[in-house]
Amino acid sequence: MAKRILVVDDDEMVLMALDELLKPEGYEVRTFSRGKEVLKSLDHEEYDLLMLDVIMPEMDGVELCKRIREREDCREIPIVFLTAKSREEDKIQCLEAGANLSLSKPISPDKLLEIISDTLG
Fold first, then answer.
1. Could you give the CA distance from residue 83 to residue 111 in angstroms, rounded to a whole number?
2. Which domains are assigned to the chain?
3. Where are the beta strands (DSSP E) in the chain?
């Protein structure tokens, strides 16, 4: 069964690029542009990996990550931030919110695929 990856980013081009990168590798990908959509999806869908952006309208990725980690059924799902925020304090904030990893954009597709593969086992 294909590993399921949820990707949330307010940039449609990023969502399209990640979808086109991940699907040929055998991953099932669901994309969202808003945090509220993600929370609704988690009510009825299960994922193997969540990839979040930090900067988003309405609810930023850090707040979304905190809300996800509050859910009993989502405490063990790996969460990886893929964000333009690259300062050390930004990475620490993501990790303190419950993320497993914080990566800075841009990142090479090969490196990202390697990290995803390692994260999913």
1. 15
2. 4-120 (3.40.50.2300)
3. 4-8, 28-32, 49-52, 79-83, 101-104
Q: Are 54 and 80 in contact (CB under 8 A)?
A: no
Q: Which residue has the tokens 């542009």?
A: 33
Average pLDDT for residues 32-58, to the nearest whole number?
95
For residue 22, the tally of other CB atoms under 10 A from its CB is: 22
pLDDT in tens, 2-33: 999 999 999 999 999 999 999 999 999 999 99
Write down the residue that tokens 């050390």 correspond to: 88
